[in-house]
């Protein structure tokens, strides 16, 4: 659209103003700025009555989403009174739904219409940020519409195999966390006479090491070059994909060809994993009794993907390159959300010290058994505390993303019809629901044992700050239902939520049982926002080794 063609203005105005301003006498007398100001005021008056102003206002508000998305979603949710509402970002139109009826409609839609994979693909821009990964738009179909029957094995590898092997994985992760915490604390700077630890940086490092061990195996967890590249790869992917997405759609391929030039970590990760995967594929050709046993996601992705391909009547298994791409996708989604949840929970422990005693009592009695059993449901008091922390400070303000792959319509509970264009998103307002007084008693209040079953509360000692749960419907942090959408819901709920839950508890319990914690500046802002994400700010925590252990 030619903006000036929509605005009726005298063609000689700018010439007149420019002429006056360029006159040396007027400039010397300071009148040039007056004429410039008058011109700006005139343009503003004319724009107010033009269609162009509305377009400018819409785009300005859309760009406001870049650093104010959560607040925009909260505000729109409050005005919608339980009905669907729209929030437009600089790149995407989001339609938010919150009633169980509308969410059921979302879940019943085929992936050829509403796709989780397409939304994730747009966020990550994997063709540029993940070594040219041809991500699926929906299960079994690529962005170009070509069948890809090897897709889907990574979901089973994480949801089933990793979960079933937690008893093998957690003890080794416990050793990693305990050793690394001690090492990092000695390295942190002493400020004002006390050693202050940057908690988000510290927790991110712990999550990176744990996840490398669980996903890529023990050997790479001790390869510091790979560890640094793996962490940098996630950070570079987030920044690189954002740099691509904020550009106009027609310009994104241009930026997409430039961004990978500085995203060197993806090449290090790919080059490190490829020979390992190739070797694992060769091992599958050995007699079953001679095949080495590996307890990591590299092996489970290969096994599960090969099994799925063969079930569909194809003799060949997954290729090495495809397996590496699947592993890179798993890795990309495995760190930042977990690190944010643990960081916020540690900070909440500092702010709510009354919960330390009952949590320690539970940890001292049950932690070793929790690790050996590998049961994510263990440590119910700690589970509730982490869930309450994540309720008030989720790492995302929205959940259950689905991208429309074609024009669609749905009818809300008031019989209003909503239309989605291709590329629009259907979502749920996670943070707004977490703060709803229709779901939670005193939603603004931190209640660390809100989700503990009443029988568990009755069984603990008087060290508990309460004896009655605030919610009539207790639940685990990994639950998925219409009121708790942290991990999504339905078939596309996060497959790694059981491992993530176990990791939350492992890291926090390891720290709490050994150290007293104090926040250096309790009133400091704890996060900043970017699009729909709550990103932890760096907060200083003082770790003091317990004298009563």
From TrEMBL:
One of its GO terms (cellular component) is membrane. Its cofactor is heme. The keyword Ubl conjugation does not apply. Transmembrane segments: none annotated. InterPro entries: Cyt_P450, Cyt_P450_E_grp-IV, Cyt_P450_sf. Pfam families: p450 (PF00067). Keywords: Heme, Iron, Membrane, Metal-binding, Monooxygenase, Oxidoreductase, Transmembrane, Transmembrane helix. The keyword Mitochondrion does not apply. Its main location: membrane. It is found in: Membrane. Belongs to the cytochrome P450 family. This is Cytochrome P450. The lineage of its organism: Eukaryota, Fungi, Dikarya, Ascomycota, Pezizomycotina.
């Amino acid at each position: 659209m030619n903006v000036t063609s929509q605005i009726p203005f005298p063609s000689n105005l700018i010439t007149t103003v420019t002429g006056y301003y360029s006159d040396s006498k007027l400039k010397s007398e300071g009148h040039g700025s007056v004429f410039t100001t008058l011109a700006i005021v005139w343009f503003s008056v004319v724009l107010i009555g033009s269609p162009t102003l509305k377009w400018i206002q819409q785009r300005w508000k859309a760009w406001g989403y870049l650093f104010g998305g959560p607040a925009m979603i909260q505000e729109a949710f409050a005005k919608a009174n339980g009905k669907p509402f729209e929030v437009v970002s600089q790149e995407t139109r989001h339609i938010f739904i919150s009633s169980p009826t509308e969410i059921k409609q979302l879940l019943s839609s085929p992936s050829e219409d509403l796709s989780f994979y397409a939304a994730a693909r747009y966020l990550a821009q994997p063709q540029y940020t993940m070594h040219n990964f041809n991500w699926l738009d929906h299960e079994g179909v690529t962005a170009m519409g070509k069948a890809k029957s090897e897709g889907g094995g990574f979901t089973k590898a994480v949801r089933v195999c990793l979960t079933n092997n937690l008893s093998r994985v957690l003890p080794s992760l416990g050793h990693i966390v305990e050793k690394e915490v001690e090492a990092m604390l000695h390295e942190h700077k002493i400020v004002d006479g006390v050693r202050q630890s940057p908690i988000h940086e510290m927790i991110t490092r712990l999550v990176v090491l744990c996840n490398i061990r669980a996903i890529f195996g023990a050997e790479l967890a001790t390869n510091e070059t790979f560890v640094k590249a793996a962490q940098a790869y996630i950070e570079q992917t987030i920044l690189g994909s954002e740099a691509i997405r904020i550009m106009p759609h027609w310009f994104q391929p241009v930026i997409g060809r430039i961004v990978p030039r500085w995203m060197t970590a993806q090449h290090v990760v790919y080059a490190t994993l490829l020979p390992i995967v190739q070797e694992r594929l060769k091992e599958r050709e050995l007699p079953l009794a001679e095949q080495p046993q590996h307890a990591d996601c590299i092996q489970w992705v290969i096994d599960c993907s090969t099994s799925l391909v063969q079930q569909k009547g194809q003799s060949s298994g997954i290729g090495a390159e495809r397996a590496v791409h699947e592993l890179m996708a798993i890795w990309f989604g495995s760190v930042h959300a977990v690190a944010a949840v643990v960081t916020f929970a540690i900070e909440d422990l500092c702010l709510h010290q009354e919960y330390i005693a009952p949590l320690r009592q539970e940890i001292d009695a049950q932690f070793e058994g929790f690790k050996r059993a590998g049961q994510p449901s263990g440590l119910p008091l700690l589970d509730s505390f982490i869930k309450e922390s994540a309720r008030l400070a989720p790492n995302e303000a929205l959940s259950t993303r689905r991208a429309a792959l074609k024009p669609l319509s749905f009818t809300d509970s008031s019989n209003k019809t909503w239309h989605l264009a291709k590329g629009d998103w259907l979502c749920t307002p996670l943070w707004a629901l977490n703060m709803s007084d229709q779901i939670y008693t005193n939603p603004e209040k931190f209640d660390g044992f809100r989700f503990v079953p009443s029988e568990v509360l009755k069984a603990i000692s008087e060290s508990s700050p309460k004896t009655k749960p605030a919610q009539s419907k207790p639940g685990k942090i990994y639950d998925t239902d219409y009121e708790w959408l942290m991990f999504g819901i339905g078939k596309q709920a996060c497959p790694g939520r059981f491992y993530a839950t176990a990791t939350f508890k492992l890291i926090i319990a390891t720290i709490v049982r050994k150290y007293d914690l104090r926040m250096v500046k309790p009133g400091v802002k704890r996060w900043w926002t970017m699009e729909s994400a709550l990103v932890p700010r760096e907060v200083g925590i003082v770790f003091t080794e317990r004298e009563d252990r």
